[in-house]
From TrEMBL:
Cofactor: NAD(+)
GO CC terms, sorted: cytosol
Assembly: Homodimer.
SUPFAM superfamilies linked: NAD(P)-binding Rossmann-fold domains
CDD domains linked: UDP_G4E_1_SDR_e (cd05247)
GO biological process: one example: galactose catabolic process via UDP-galactose, Leloir pathway
Superkingdom as given in the UniProt entry: Eukaryota
Full protein name: UDP-glucose 4-epimerase
The keyword NAD is assigned to this record: yes
């Protein structure tokens, strides 16, 4: 029997790519999502999940479920015997978190507490948590390794990730039979090579590359480049971009690590290379063959000049490295965006 893995927020961008990798690695994912970052498809199944079923010629158990609904979560755990949980569910827009901090604390923290308490009650003691490089705050040194201080987060979204990490660490200390891997992502971009699933932001994209891709398909007139006076190669902000499929494979490596009774471990998932905003724009122009118009705008509050990972610990202990280069990231992103100019709603009857 294939091991059952619960995937919370599994219809979203990163979650859906992990569902593909789980199936291809021989696991049986059970997916829950409340549609806060996903599109409803036919038959009351998320469109991303429906497309994965078609792509891999399989069926996936999917439930519309909000982790704040504790009774529904209890019911799911009574029905299934999960070997592990991958926890992606949560609100994730940095700007929105500054405007609505209480909502972010209530949703992200309560959801995680509900999940861990129900896991504990049903003796499910293996967890992979989707964290973020935002827990590091402003970098004190580069590249950022896992020993870099955490907690000086510049926004409530980052703080929720930090608080959840702390909750998991404390729980693993008190419950010796628990194992958790906390994965701190840098900047996931790209899409599955099939062009069937990818990042489909609801409303105006908060992240650079979905915005750039939407400019390329003429959904947006131009890109605002926030600040060109940073101490970087061309004055624009530098970040570590990682292909979402590489990221998903990192989660499979983390799942295997749990088998070692590893306690609570933390790993960066990044490439270790930094690229500037204008370098990303040029790379996307090359992949798409389109001109990407942009305007220089003032710096945004809270933005930093450079941020990139030291990913060597994940290589050493998980046997994982990022395989895809920038060219491939942009090619796959362009394939997804050009095949789905309006995102998942392309294939969904209105």
């Amino acid at each position: 029997m294939a091991e059952k893995v619960l995937v919370t927020g599994g219809a979203g961008y990163i979650g859906s790519h992990c569902v593909v990798e789980l199936i291809e690695a021989g696991y049986q994912p059970v997916v829950v999502d409340n549609y806060s970052n996903a599109v409803r498809g036919e038959g009351n199944v998320a469109e991303s999940i429906r497309r994965i079923e078609k792509l891999l010629n399989t069926s996936i158990e999917f439930h519309e479920l909000d982790l704040l609904d504790r009774p529904a979560l209890e019911k799911l755990f009574k029905k299934h015997s999960f070997s592990a949980v991958m926890h992606f569910a949560g609100l994730k827009a940095v700007g929105e978190s500054v405007e609505q901090p209480l909502r972010y604390y209530r949703v992200n923290l309560t959801a995680s507490m509900n999940l861990m308490e129900v896991m504990q009650a049903h003796k499910v003691h293996n967890l992979v948590f989707s964290s973020s490089a935002t827990v590091y705050g402003d970098p004190q040194h580069l590249p950022i390794d896992e020993q870099h201080p955490v907690g000086a987060c510049t926004n409530p979204y980052g703080k929720t990730k930090y608080f959840i990490e702390e909750m998991i660490k404390d729980h693993c200390k008190s419950e010796k039979d628990w194992n958790a891997v906390l994965l701190r992502y840098f900047n996931p971009i790209g899409a599955h090579a099939s062009g069937q699933i990818g990042e489909d932001p609801q409303g105006i994209p908060n992240n650079l590359m979905p915005y750039v891709a939407q400019v390329a398909v003429e959904r947006r007139p131009f890109l605002n480049v926030f600040g060109n006076d940073y101490e970087t190669v061309d004055g624009t902000g530098v970040r570590d971009y990682i292909h979402v499929v590489d990221l998903a494979k990192g989660h499979i490596a983390a799942l295997k690590k749990l088998k070692d009774n590893c306690g609570c471990q933390v790993y960066n998932l990044g490439t270790g290379k930094g690229y500037s905003v204008l370098q990303m724009v040029k790379a996307m122009e090359k992949a798409s063959g389109k001109e990407i118009k942009y305007k220089i705008a003032p710096r945004r509050e809270g933005d930093i000049a450079s941020c990139y990972a030291d990913p060597r610990l994940a290589e050493k202990e998980l046997g994982w490295t990022a395989a895809f280069d920038l060219e491939r990231m942009c090619e796959d992103l362009w394939r997804w965006q050009s095949m789905n100019p309006t995102g998942f709603t392309n294939g969904v009857p209105s």
